[in-house]
Write a structure and sequence with these properties.
By secondary structure, this protein is α+β, with helices and mostly antiparallel strands. The protein has two domains: 42-181, Protein Transport Mog1p, Chain A (3-Layer(aba) Sandwich); 183-287, no CATH class. Helix content is 22%, strand content 27%. A twelve-stranded antiparallel sheet has the order 4-5-6-7-3-2-1-8-9-10-12-11, with helices on both faces. β6 (148-154) and β7 form a beta hairpin. The longest helix is centred in the last third of the chain and has 18 residues, at 244-261. The two termini are 16 Å apart.
Length: 288
């Protein structure tokens, strides 16, 4: 039977923040906040302003996911570039434009990474890497994926990955707080961040090519988040349309789509706030 894990699935398991050359080793937190973070959570400061569309943001708190015995997506014995899951903190993965083999991606994972350990783990997976010039305080490794140059960096508090040099440098500037963010400049992204808050696991999409919780295919943005609990977890999502009338018309359809695509959810509550349909539910943690 086809998986019903709908909106939060990004092409791998529900829990994986995958990057080219790092599939399956990166995931997502600390306490979920830092000075100056907006109402949505830490991720809102880690997505650069861009004209590219669509934009997809995946986020997770690795240490909380790994500590939950009923959540199978991240194991307590899984290594994260030399770190135990309890040491790996907040992770954000951003895809700009159409996803695919040559997708434009940058990822940021917070934790006390050690350069030599990161290099050893990466080279065991992707082959030999060369050390480049330091970038914004990050020791940099360069490699190739097919014909594409890829970049990895280790700083004092984070690991950064980019599928090209520009995206990699963007990630390093975001860590330093030196980049304008999409959640500040785009009203729909800011609204959705306020709806899902700072979840343990989540995704936000702007101008998505396909949103499984949107039965019309006309949504301009969408987001979903899971606040992980021991037995049950809180699910919240939002689907934003061009007009309030569209949101009202599609309220029941969006709710039905969540039940159809999320296997851990059997029933939902829906509401309309302006142009956005909001769905809340309780999910069975072991089925996520």
């Amino acid at each position: 039977m086809q998986s019903r894990r709908g909106f939060l699935v990004t092409g791998g398991t529900l829990s994986t923040v995958a990057v080219a050359g790092c599939s399956g080793i990166l995931g997502g937190d600390d306490d979920g906040g830092s000075d100056g973070v907006s109402a949505g959570g830490r991720y809102t400061d880690l997505v650069a302003e861009t004209d590219e569309r669509p934009v997809r943001v995946n986020l997770q708190r690795i240490n909380e996911l790994a500590a939950n015995e009923n959540f199978a997506g991240v194991g307590q014995d899984q290594s994260f570039l030399g770190l135990d899951p309890s040491e790996a903190e907040y992770a954000v993965n951003v895809t700009e434009g159409t996803a695919g083999l040559q997708a434009n991606i940058y990822s940021i994972v917070f934790g006390p990474f050690v350069f030599e350990d990161v290099r050893s783990e990466l080279e065991a997976q992707v082959g030999e890497l060369s050390e480049g010039e330091e970038t914004n305080g990050f020791r940099t490794l360069e490699g190739e994926s097919g014909s594409q140059a890829i970049y990895y960096g280790v700083g004092d508090e984070a690991f950064v990955f980019g599928t090209d040099q520009t995206l990699f440098e963007t990630g390093t500037r975001l860590v330093a707080g030196d980049e304008s963010t999409l959640f500040d400049s785009n009203e729909d992204m800011g609204t959705l961040a306020g709806i899902i808050g700072d979840p343990t696991l989540g995704q936000v999409q702007l101008e998505p090519e396909q949103l499984q919780t949107d039965p019309t295919g006309n949504a301009v943005a969408g987001a979903a988040g899971i606040e992980l609990g021991d037995e049950e977890s809180d699910y919240t999502s939002g689907v934003t349309y061009e007009t309030e009338a569209e949101a009202t018309e599609n309220e029941s359809g969006v709710g039905d789509a969540v039940v159809e695509t999320e296997s851990a959810i059997d029933s939902v509550e829906t509401a309309v706030d302006g142009r956005t349909v909001i769905v809340t539910a309780t999910a069975t943690t072991s089925e996520l």
